[in-house]
Specification:
Length: about 300
């Protein structure tokens, strides 16, 4: 299957995840057993939900062919779904359907759906703020860690990698305490511009953040000595990837969405998203591939 079709399939899946009931299971490229041919058959998107104690299976097939989908393709999907126990067949075509395929689908209870892209000048006003969306992924690794004690600290207290911290009724490593403290501060969001500017300013970017502990945490060294620091100072190395999401407004099954995604230079999927407006808020789903994250894996 061409990479472009795969990306189209991922967008269809993420939209259906937004539309499906919260307890539904949505699987991409699901394999179901065909008892007639005694082999597994692939379903582009499988939606499983329970209704009146019955497991309902909806099969969604996605095509990105350059021409409207003909009746033979619809027949093929219907037959495949019959053999693997699909209850409802849905076919999504990027470029529509022929008149004969529409007639056949109507007589056989098959749902045909298309994407209707809105031109950039025809976006709904409520979605205009979503134009030009981008995404970033960042990995951190601990570069340096230090603490500030009060003047009355025991001179024999040894601050090194073996130190543990009493946190939520248990002692954890000082490294884990530092990483949890850094993550909870949401630095990536609060200082996103500064972090990006720092990266663009040269190689080996890092960030230093101090957190006031106010002697609220007990630190214990390898000899069992305990003390409570005033402050912990955390220095992090970091590395990021940035990508535009190519957002666009579409209509799918009569509903408006803003969808988009990112691919690398080799057309490998990096990310995809689908958002809709509900009660004045934008809700939806975002899926990110592991290969979107920087290659150097850090400790966070």
């Amino acid at each position: 299957m061409p990479a472009r079709t795969n990306e189209f399939q991922k967008l269809v899946k993420i939209i259906n995840r937004s539309l499906a009931p919260s307890d539904a299971k949505v699987t991409e490229s699901a394999m179901l057993y065909d008892h007639e041919s005694e082999t597994d058959r692939e379903i582009d998107i499988l939606i499983e939900s329970e209704l009146l104690n019955c497991n309902i299976k909806i099969g969604v097939e996605c095509t990105a062919t350059s021409r409207p989908l003909d009746v033979r393709s619809i027949e093929s999907f219907k037959e495949k779904h019959r053999k693997v126990g699909i209850n409802q067949t849905v076919v999504v075509s990027k470029n529509g359907f022929t008149s004969t395929s529409k007639k056949y689908a109507k007589k056989n209870n098959i749902r045909l759906l298309t994407f209707n892209d809105a031109k950039s000048e025809n976006w709904s006003k409520k979605y205009e703020k979503l134009k030009g969306l981008s995404i970033y992924a960042r990995n951190y690794s601990l570069r340096n860690l230090s603490v500030v004690f009060s003047e009355g600290v025991d001179k024999n207290f040894i601050f090194d990698n073996s130190v543990t911290v009493l946190f939520k009724d248990e002692f954890i490593s000082v490294h884990k305490f530092a990483l949890d403290t850094f993550v909870s501060a949401n630095i990536s969001k609060l200082a996103s511009k500064e972090l990006k500017d720092n990266e663009e300013g040269g190689e080996d970017p890092w960030i230093e953040v101090g957190f006031d502990l106010n002697k609220h945490y007990i630190f214990k060294d390898k000899n069992g000595l305990e003390d409570s620091p005033l402050q912990i100072i955390i220095v992090m190395n970091y590395e990021s990837n940035y990508s535009d999401l190519d957002s666009r407004q579409v209509k799918y099954d009569g509903k408006e969405f803003v969808i988009g995604g990112a691919q690398d230079e080799d057309d490998n999927h990096l990310a995809s998203f689908a958002l809709k407006e509900a009660d004045g808020k934008f809700i939806g789903n975002l899926e990110v591939s592991p290969n979107f994250f920087p290659t150097k894996q850090g400790e966070l």
